[in-house]
Amino acid sequence: MRTSFAPSAEVDEGLDRIRRELEIPTSFPDEVERAAAEAVRRTPTDHVDRTDLPFVTLDPLDATDLDQALCLERSGDDLLLRYAIADVGWFVRHGDVLDREAWRRGTTMYVPGGKAPLYPKVLSEAAASLLPDGPRPAVVFVVRLDPDGEARLDGAERAIVRSRTKLAYDRVAPGDLPAELPEFARRMHAAELRRGAGRLESPEQDVERDDGGYRLVFRPRVESEEHNATLSLAANLAIARALHDAGTGMFRVMDEPDERQVRRLRMTARALRIDWPESTSLVAFEQSLRADDQAHAAMTMAIRRAGGGARYVPHRDGEVPWHAAMAATYAHATAPLRRLGDRHVVLAALAVAGGRPVPDEVAQAFVDLPDVMARADALGNRLDRLVVDLVEAIVLRDQEGRVFEALVTDIDDRGARVQLCDVPVVARVDARRTAPGDRIHVRLLEASPEERRVRFERVS
């Protein structure tokens, strides 16, 4: 992992400018805080007692808005996941002041060293969060995973749960987690291969708060994070299938690359010197790529962009919502503290599992939510990019004229996208007669923290 350090004061000032520019809220209106304080006093009455089950949470070390807690056991040849999801719908009622504010925000917005949460902290980081400091109301989904890795929803109920411990991705020991988790992950991965899903995750460019400043890093996912992701994936797939069968819901979809895009991807593979036999499909080729290989990571990035971005759609009669990367019908249900849509999907799944009709206000929300979530996602993506641009410029300031080795990761009508080899910086450069996978040298022309801009020129 490569890191670069930026001093705190200048980054903090730049982050404040970004928040103001994007109108990221720094607090909640008083009436929303009062409503949250009142909501946390609401005594659960529709919940069964499941505090005897050994739930644990697994999240980043500093996370306090904990959406999920897991309990995993064997049931004959199957694996049984009891997945407790924060019961935000118990605290937030349709049309109340908390609900209206959440519709304005859409998602939690993350800024290094802070965030603009979807709900006030008294809810999102206390009463509704599945922290191990007391019982919490939750919706517990029972997901059965058969030996072939097929997940189905066996049931759902409102329950009071108690997390035994809060585990962190980078500090957890194998003995801290259910013994069945590696087998659960293995089954899920095998099922993905069979159905043609491609979920290889390349390292993420990220900004992290550190003592005295911030670090710009490429952060790979650790094994515990990958294993944990299979739990959410299984629950989301099982819930999506149940909702689609019931003729309701909101789904996450992504298009397949078309023939022209696949031809271009084959050219990219040749440029990256990655063997892609003509008889091998795009799905099989993507499954052969390795996350720890720089050229393979660049290829994965090109494949992801070729299919276009993921988006939300409501259920439509006669249509099968399809997520190309998952090779399945897929929904977002497992992060209701951080995504507005998940709260409504959870409420719909709870109704469907109990054989009850989906409430009218939830069904209507599925029509209106896609536009709201699209705007929130676009804002979050822009926020992430501006934060990285700021820290990149600070890291590189006063190095104008320096020549860096860089790897070309992609080419489009805006030029070459390059990743510097010595520092975790991604930039654009005018690099004619080059192709993805080429190693070139670029000179830094400008690094302006005020403009959040870095400019390079190719020198060889």
Automatic annotation (TrEMBL):
This is Unannotated protein. Residues 47-355 form the RNB domain. It comes from freshwater metagenome. GO terms for biological process: mRNA catabolic process. SMART domains: RNB, S1. One of its GO terms (molecular function) is RNA nuclease activity. Residues 399-459 form the S1 motif domain.
